[in-house]
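agent> fetching stored inputs for the zinc ion docking request
agent> found them:
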Amino acid sequence: MELVSAEATQAQGSASDRAFSFVSAPAFPAPASIREAHSLFDADIIPFDPRDAKSHREGAALANACREQTLGGVVALEGVGLHTGEIVHMTLRPAAAGHGIVFRRTDLDTSAPDVTDILARYDMVSDATMCTRISNAAGTELNTIEHIMAALSAFSIDNALIEIDGPEVPVMDGSSSEFVAAFTKTGARQQGAERKALRILKSVVVEEGLKRSELCPADQFRIEFEIDFDSPVIGRQVFAADIDEAFFADELGDARTFGFLKDLELMKSLGLARGGSLDNAVVISDDEILNEDGLRFDDEFVRHKVLDAVGDLALAGLPILGCLKTVRGGHAMNNLVLRALFADPSSYEIVTLREEGASVARPSLAIPAE
Ligand SMILES: [Zn+2]
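agent> prediction call returned; pasting tokens
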């Protein structure tokens, strides 16, 4: 999430983001139903092998994950919605291999999954101006999915059903830290199906004014991110790292969203950002940070943008073996570069992740699937 117009305040101005529209052709047509959407994935379910059961950390690192994973148990969370200001309840449930991450709006008075369910995938994104919003064919929307998607992706959780009784994921403390804590406690459970990944074969670039975003080949998932804000508190910050579960939990998950006081006041006067406060964002006024305890990292701003990118790229539907290089990007650019990738089938291949041996810390060998 980018509270208010944090991204738009970057040096190049806001016009292009406001004019953002999703016109690129998706790699495959938007499915008519969740059932059809699921059939796009390999849904073969192999019985869970108890010999695969390990402690969460060990199991996750060993597999990281060469087999699909779901949650080790049910997770219940609640918190305020940033825009509505109302309490939202969320229940995360394990789901079968091939299910993907699906959000279900339990506040809607219907039992039709085509209305209540929204698959978390790049071509379901209907707006990316301030947060990432997904919508289904029935017009049901869910806002601000990026911080929980980032944590799910970092923990290699491929399959889950997330019930939520409102139009937005609770903002929690503005970061992914409470999701990380929940997943660390619950753990991940390996499933039978071999895990597939998206390997980038050649660079794909999208540009809008001074914004640039590129997906390029790399042996593992990596992000290189640069921001440049016309604010003395933020300025230019650069962050580059290979991202895995431990790195995310230690270095990214706690980084909070941020915004400017004048934007927050304007939005509140318009009835927006009702839940926005110093409890769930770093708030900047001119040249100072208003939060009493200051920053969690010296470069918390760019770290949060990397966190957002992890969540937005999780909408590829498969883990990515490749590097995202972004200058002045945000949710819109993250989505556009994924759409550009899927629009060019020669730019990627689907591979099956394999373990080389019991001690391998991450899948270093990927072979094409079929
Ligand atoms: Zn964010």
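agent> quick read of the result: The CA atoms of residues 26 and 123 lie 6 Å apart.
agent> awaiting further instructions
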